[in-house]
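Hey L., structure's done. Input below.
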Amino acid sequence: MRRFKSRYLFIIFALLLTGCVNVEKEKSLEKEKSPLTTQITIEPYNMSEKENLLISKTGVGHIEFFKLNGTPKDEDQLYFSVEVFKNGKFKEELLKTWDGPETKYQDSFISFGISAIENEGHSLKLITGTPTGIATTVYSNNMTSSSFGKLVGGKVTLEKNKPVYLAAWLGTTKNKLSFGGGNDGELPSGIEEAELTFLYKVIWADKEK
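Output:
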């Protein structure tokens, strides 16, 4: 009887040990399969006719939406901002925002919009949207004509420390304004001629301490 119990306990112990070994093997395989680097992509979101109609009722003059996918590593961060150029030269950075440290982006929406503010001359309201909220600011100017458009034509894979420009607004007081919107997120042509330019930018970089 004692021998039977001993053998029974030995079999249970052996099965448990085998199970633990298999679990450790599965964990090791999962680590090997997981990528060493994270891929983060952004692509334009094309609104339907109904969505465009709904947006037109909000008072936002121009807006572009984009989908974001990927998960930054613990030591990394995505930063969103609007860069201001005057006569083709960088002037300042506005509305710099970022999400939480453990953000996982899965078809997450970001956006950039501009609206003219009535009864306040040529003041513009800049609107940036991230997965966790909205940031706005008002910018006074004397531009009399403008152009607005996106700067990416398809899915773009982010490279660390390399900015990607998603949308642009160009303004001028002259009769002519050229805007060469690209498809790869690079600086657009035409900002040298524009007196005022707003560029919606995202960059994947180290966390700021």
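The helical segments are 2-33, 49-56. The CA atoms of residues 123 and 140 lie 4 Å apart.

-- N.
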